[in-house]
TrEMBL record:
PROSITE patterns: GGDEF. Keywords: Membrane, Transmembrane, Transmembrane helix. Its EC number is 2.7.7.65. This is diguanylate cyclase. Residues 233-358 form the GGDEF domain. It is an enzyme of class 2 (transferase). It comes from Marinomonas rhizomae. Its cofactor is Mg(2+). GO terms for molecular function: diguanylate cyclase activity. It catalyses: 2 GTP = 3',3'-c-di-GMP + 2 diphosphate. It comes from the Bacteria. The chain crosses the membrane at residues 21-41, 47-70, 77-97, 103-120, 165-185.
Amino acid sequence: MYRHYLSKVLEWLLVNKDKPFEYTHHSVLLVGTVLFFYAAVVNYHLGLASTFTVIALLALSFLIFLVWYLSRWRNQFKLMSVAFLGLITLVAIPINWMGNGGSNGPTFFVALGLLIYISGSFKNIGLYRRVGQLFCLMAPIPLIMLENAHPELVFHYTTDSLKQIDLTITFIIIGLFLIIMVESLSTRFKLEREKATQLSEKLKTLSEQDSLTGLYNRRKLDEQYTSWKQQGRIFSLALLDIDHFKNVNDQWGHNYGDKVLQSVADLLIKVAKKNHGLAIRFGGEEFILFLPISLDEVYKATTQTAQSLSEIPFKHASVTFSAGISQDKTEDSQDELLKRADNLMYQAKSNGRNCILK
Ligand SMILES: Nc1nc2c(ncn2[C@@H]2O[C@H](COP(=O)(O)OP(=O)(O)OP(=O)(O)O)[C@@H](O)[C@H]2O)c(=O)[nH]1
């Protein structure tokens, strides 16, 4: 219950989690707003920075909040990402430098934190990202030059302990920020990997499945044959062909024919499941039961299948099939196994159909 409300509030503030870049960026903007506001208040109270810096920190806090608002509620994510980059590299870093002790202050931590954030989170704004990285990396150089030329522009700590407090607080804040960022990147990476695994499993299943009946296709037969052969298992194959199926199509239409095929498939799936084997659609109205059991057992299972099929009340008439069954021999290849079953199936057709031969 509590988690439900929390995630609703976070979604409202940050956007749906399905958009991980926006989600992270909006959270950084809001945290940034609070931090700059907090920094202004603390600096003012402890006298850690000049009045100018305090006002600048307040203004930055407001501007970052504005960037969040336009990005979150005015659909300007990309533009606002660039605006945020400009704000932190061109305004926040120089202000922090000037207002918090220059090269003796905590701006190196701040620039490093921002550099890592830009590198990890702004992949979709290519060129701007590179420019932002360059600014963060190079910012100390002109600032040191300016500090040397005009030391009066930089606010200097009045005591060593104020400097220590400022460095420590900034270090902790940037450290926490980096922890959150690395965690969010690794969560994102994990999610993407899970998604890719699920997708490749789905693709594999689809590539092995017949779309009309949901049965496996020939590809799966090859794979299973190799596996059982390598394991030295006993297995047999029944090749089933529906009798006079063309007539069904011709008289009752193709859609009806499809429904008949699906009913036959449902039956075969049950038989395959019961015997820990596979039901395969081999061609149009040709099916295979590929089961890890002996010839006689497959014969029995196929006869029961014919019986069950005859009991299904199709509207045109009952459906029958002809089948040939063969068991794998050690010296057999897959083709030989299939060929024997195929020959027997044709013999069953010649015998007048509705016949199973082994
Ligand atoms: N509805 C439907 N029909 C299909 C599908 N695939 C193949 N067929 C039909 O299955 C029929 C097979 O006909 P034939 O090979 O002449 O065999 P048959 O009429 O079953 O006769 P016998 O096998 O000799 O008993 C053809 O009419 C094909 O169009 C399919 O996916 N859906």
